[in-house]
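wait is this the right file?? whatever heres the structure
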């Protein structure tokens, strides 16, 4: 009987186990997790804090016991893996060593907490797990009136939204010059800033935190420009770091995550990786990059499982993009906002159907969409298609879809790199 190990039980780990069980019914699957909970969706945690969903909905695959019975796995809960040894494909956890035919590294990522001078032991939160969400909700229900949210990312803005729902005053801060710095064009960011300020959200951009100090009536955060912000609590949304301390970089190739090929294989034979702990080729740049999206974890987990089971499959590559709904606004960012080229736009920012894009050498390099989230799929498809079929004109079905959603024919022609 084949024996497989899966390190981590988030989205990627779940789909790897599910796929292996479906394709290799008679096998042993051991899952190691540092928690005793079912797989959770990190992006749903803020919806729970905001009161839009109950806590159980943070766990999209259902209750843990139901999942264990469905997948027929051996679940080693609260068992952080101490080491994966690539030389003999072994896993060491709880002082015990087990050897496997194949191993899937799906240990995800942890919220990043950088070393900050004077970081208080209480009153500072992160947002990644259901437990994180529960702790923040407890603080809100305990009567806090103000919060500093550090990190103007998709997580940071959703935390601001949750605080706003509870009428907690918030300051959104980032050392970048504006919100969503890896996805947002400056002109679009200015518009979003104005909308946030109209809702009472205070903004502080362009400087990072240098230190903190606890005072009787709150936490004072000192920034690199010497300014200070006092709040009841601080929520750090400063990104994530892959949870891979159990790996030896002399054995497993690691960049900003575990590096894998299109089959989700690492450089070590019979060891795969999937989800937020790994990095794959990003389609637009052609570089290795961690693109931590739920959809990627689903596909990567399945592909790792299929290849282990003897059904060869490939991951087409990650595509850096962002689709975020917050405070009655929709923002979709596709491609690299630092791209050079001709700027084209459709609609007005105040409407529900605005697009600002950068086109260079006949290719769409970047697009920001406000309001009309329905067209994001069309734009994403066109980005990917241009990498696979450079120089191809926009297909008729794609043109028709954009026209149906109110995008002008002139703008669509510009997206295809043609002059009008």
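ok assuming it is, sequence goes like this
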């Amino acid at each position: 009987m084949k024996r497989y190990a899966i390190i981590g039980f988030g989205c990627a780990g779940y789909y790897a186990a599910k796929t292996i069980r479906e394709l290799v019914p008679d096998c042993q699957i051991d899952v190691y997790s540092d928690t005793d909970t079912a797989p959770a969706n990190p992006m749903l945690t803020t919806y729970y804090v905001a009161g839009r969903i109950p806590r159980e909905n943070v766990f999209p695959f259902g209750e843990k016991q139901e999942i264990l019975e469905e997948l027929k796995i051996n679940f080693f809960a609260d068992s952080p893996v101490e080491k994966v040894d690539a030389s003999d494909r072994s896993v060491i956890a709880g002082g015990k060593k087990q050897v496997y035919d194949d191993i899937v590294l799906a240990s995800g990522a942890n919220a990043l907490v950088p070393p900050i001078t004077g970081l208080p032991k209480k009153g500072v939160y992160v947002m990644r797990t259901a437990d994180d969400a529960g702790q923040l909700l407890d603080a809100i229900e305990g009567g806090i009136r103000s919060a500093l949210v550090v990190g103007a990312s998709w997580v940071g803005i959703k935390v601001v939204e949750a605080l706003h729902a509870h009428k907690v005053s918030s300051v959104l801060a980032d050392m970048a010059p504006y919100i969503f710095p890896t996805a947002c064009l400056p002109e679009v960011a200015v518009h979003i800033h104005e909308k946030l300020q109209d809702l009472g959200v205070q903004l502080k951009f362009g400087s990072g935190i240098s230190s903190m100090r606890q005072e009787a009536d709150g936490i004072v955060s000192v920034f690199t420009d010497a300014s200070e912000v006092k709040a009841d609590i601080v929520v750090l949304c400063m990104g994530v770091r892959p949870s891979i301390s159990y790996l030896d970089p002399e054995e497993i190739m690691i960049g900003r995550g575990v590096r894998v090929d299109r089959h989700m294989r690492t450089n070590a034979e019979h060891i795969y990786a999937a989800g937020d702990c790994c990095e794959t080729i990003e389609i637009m740049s052609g570089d290795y990059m961690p693109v931590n999206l739920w959809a990627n974890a689903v596909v990567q987990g399945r592909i790792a499982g299929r290849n282990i089971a003897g059904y060869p499959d490939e991951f087409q590559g990650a595509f850096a993009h962002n689709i975020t709904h917050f405070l009655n606004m929709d923002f979709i960012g596709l491609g690299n906002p630092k791209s050079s080229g001709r700027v084209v736009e459709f609609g007005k920012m105040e409407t529900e159907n605005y697009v600002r894009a950068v086109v260079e050498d006949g290719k769409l390099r970047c697009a920001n969409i406000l309001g009309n989230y329905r067209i994001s799929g069309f734009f994403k498809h066109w980005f990917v298609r241009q990498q696979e079929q450079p120089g191809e004109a926009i297909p008729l079905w794609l043109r028709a879809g954009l026209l149906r959603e109110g995008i002008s024919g002139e703008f669509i022609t510009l997206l295809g790199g043609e002059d009008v």
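Residues 50 and 166 are 7 Å apart (CA to CA). so i think its the right one actually
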